[in-house]
Amino acid sequence: MEKEKMLFVTSNPTFLHDIIEKLRNQYEIKLLVIDRLNDLSKVKILDMCEWADIIWCEWADQIAAFVTHNVNDKRIIVRLHGYEIFSRIFLDVDWKNVNDLIFVARHKADLFKAVVPKEQRPKNLWVVRNGINLDKFTIPKDKKKNKNLTIVGYVNYRKGFPVLIQAFKQLVDIDPEYKLYIRGESQDDRLSLYLNHIIPKLGLNKNIYLVKRVDDLNEFFKSMTYIVSSSIEESFHYTIGEGMAAGLKPIVHGWPESEEIWPKENIWYSIKDFIRLVTEEEYNPKKYREYILQNLSLEYQVGCIKDILLRGKHNG
User: Fold this and answer.
1) Among 76, 217, 251, 257, which lies 20 to 30 A Cα-Cα from 263?
2) Cα-flanking dihedrals φ and ψ of residue 2, to 5°?
């Protein structure tokens, strides 16, 4: 039996690779990565769309807008992550030409519905959370609790560094042995200026370390005990789940929908909560990994996507 042809088109395939590998046994798949939308890339997109039975646009961005305004009689799926909602770029998409719109967070779906009238929305709206590939992360057999915290990801205003620095300062005042490793590249010169100023001002030069990007997160996590999120908003925050898969205790700021994704007992809303979660005795690496296995695994995510693809085929 001939496989359906599925095209993934995107400017950033970061969140697609694991999904594609899991779908290859059922679909003939091609991935098209577009660095810049211009006349040449538009021709390439249209040629590839002609080949495909199903077109998956990763991000509700200019590429999705181009596809939905120029491709007809194909099943089009768009996955919306987050930045698109706040930049309003998603409004350029021809949503009536989209069969399935997948959100990775419920509050993003609510924000979408608040702006796009019902008669202009895709027929099918879905919420499918991201999934963690547990095969990429392990808990060392000799894993022991220490006083190392890490926050992983781009350094930008959304990650809530000012409040994290204040919370961590109070933690160090209680116990100066705690260390915070900030692993990520800066996307905000103002924030970098602030961090380079405030860290020495608070006397934290020997407690906070700015770590350049590392390719092997699993190896990096081996020397850590806590994975921190201090964000003001996220759709998911992948590195929290990756850290948990490696046995790290999540310390998650209470951004919208965080309690629906991560363990409620690990959410902090105040500096007092933050300090309590870090300093309490409870530390159970197997429990954190099991939470991912039961709730946020790659297999569960792909199972939901397969179900959406199958429903669309039967409804087509």
Assistant:
1) 217
2) -70, 135
The structural domains of the chain, ordered by start, are 4-131+297-315 (3.40.50.2000), 134-295 (3.40.50.2000)
Return d(Cα 229, Cα 250) in angstroms, integer: 8
The answer to whether 99 and 73 are in contact (CB under 8 A) is: no
HSE (side-chain half, CA atoms, 13 Å) at 57:
31
**Which pTM does this prediction carry?**
0.93
- 111-137 pLDDT, tens per residue? 999 999 999 999 899 999 999 999 999
- β-bridge mates for residue 152, sequence order: 183
Report the amino acid identity of residue 31.
L
Chain centroid offset of residue 130 CA: 7
The distance from CA 218 to its chain's CA centroid, rounded to whole angstroms, is 17
Residues of the chain above pLDDT 90, percent: 93
A 10 A CB-CB count for 202 gives 16
